[in-house]
Design brief:
Blueprint (H helix, E strand, L loop, with lengths): L4 E4 L6 E7 L35 H8 L4 E4 L5 E6 L4 E8 L2 E9 L3 E2 L2 E2 L4 H7 L5 E6 L2 E6 L2 H6 L2 E5 L2 E8 L4 E9 H7 L3 E5 L10 H25 L6 E2 L1 H17 L12 H7 L6 E8 L4 H9 L2 H7 L6 E7 L2 E8 L3
Parallel strand pairs: 15-17
Antiparallel strand pairs: 1-14, 2-16, 3-4, 4-5, 5-6, 6-13, 7-8, 9-10, 10-14, 11-12, 12-13, 16-18, 17-18
Protein name: CAP domain-containing protein
Pfam families: CAP, CAP_assoc_N
């Protein structure tokens, strides 16, 4: 096999934007069950989530029951989604009949020696947060290079030779808001950090239009569920899914992707107000979050949570409805305040 040295920003520039309008238009908890005894890690990692890596979906279903959904990802695996849409949200990535990644947020997530809600310093005391993390696979070698903002908001921890954890922090509260446990091959597919490598990178999945449609619908529902779990953690009312607003959001994401721009305003100068009016959507107030080039829905949500304007929209107590539209790796949230 031919090997070469490379260094590249393998992740496109990730961006988020927010806009909030005050347009006047006439004005269950997921049960934590005992996990099979087999362990992949040292005794330091006692949380249930770690032990699922490498298990089969049949074992998962036996202990947690049927998932709420099975969402296709853009990386060849399927997310098994478990959520009560209020206090807890967990996705298990299933690839070739085994669990290769877990993303979890919300209350009662078992990830000892850390837990959701702990301070940055407490988690850093349990894990070191280096700026360089290596992954070796045969003759190939990969080095993830983290910038200062990565270390502060989403540090990467090496748990074993082939297992890693991304710690997602709320940079406003400086507390752990979510975790992702992921094997080395899947992490390489995501490429969430700058990467220096010797060898070759995994090939990008070639997806059909039909597959993309399934992936986009799954990410829309994931963002909706995660938004309500985040709002619940801050004692804000849950939002209702709104099909008409979701269509508006989707069309804006699609327009940005196809016309290669990133803005709340289309190339014709129209904004959220005009897009809602074109679909005859009525409301008291509206707001919009957009993001681009994040590898998946959890990563986009984390970006919004850690940006002041987006955070204000996510946690606005006056909003009642939410529409989410995803096209490829372009993400749009449209929030509305509607009469009850």
């Amino acid at each position: 096999m031919f090997y070469f040295l490379g260094k590249a920003e393998v992740t496109p520039k990730q961006a988020v934007e927010n806009i909030s309008h005050l347009f006047t238009e006439k004005k269950s908890d997921i049960k934590q069950k005992k996990v099979p005894e087999k362990k992949l890690l040292s005794s330091k990692y006692t949380g249930d989530l770690y032990q699922w890596l490498g298990k089969t979906p049949e074992e998962l279903q036996k202990h947690l029951g049927n998932p709420e959904r099975k969402d296709l990802s853009a990386y060849g695996y399927t997310w098994w989604v478990y959520t009560d849409q209020k206090q807890q949200y967990i996705q298990f990535g299933v690839d070739d009949n085994k669990i290769t990644s877990v993303f979890a947020m919300g209350k009662s997530v078992s990830a000892e020696p850390v837990k959701i809600g702990q301070s940055y310093n407490e988690v850093k005391h349990a894990f070191s947060f280096p700026k360089e993390v290596t992954y070796d696979k045969g003759l190939a070698s990969y080095q993830f290079l983290l910038k200062n903002e990565d270390v502060n908001a989403r540090p990467l921890v090496k748990l074993s030779d082939n297992l890693f954890m991304q710690c997602y922090f709320d940079t406003f509260t400086k507390k752990l808001s979510a975790i992702r446990i992921i094997d080395g091959d899947t992490l390489l597919k995501h490429r969430p950090y700058e990467l220096k490598y010797r060898g070759s990178l995994p090939k990008t999945e070639k997806l059909t239009d039909a597959e993309w449609k399934k992936i986009e619908k799954g990410m829309e529902q994931q963002i909706f569920d995660m938004t309500n779990v985040v709002r619940n953690s801050f004692n804000k009312p849950s939002l209702k899914w709104d099909d008409s607003v979701s269509e508006v959001a989707y069309l804006h994401s699609k327009d940005m992707a196809e016309n290669n721009y990133f803005s709340h305003y289309g190339l014709d100068g129209t904004g959220l107000k005009e897009r809602l009016a074109a679909k005859k959507v009525f409301y008291f107030a509206a707001g919009e979050n957009i993001a681009a080039q994040y590898p998946d829905a959890p990563a986009a949500m984390h970006g919004w949570l850690n940006s002041k304007g987006h955070r204000e929209a996510l946690l606005n107590k006056d909003y009642t409805n939410l529409g989410v539209g995803v096209y490829k790796f372009y993400y749009t949230q449209n929030f509305l305040a509607k009469p009850m």
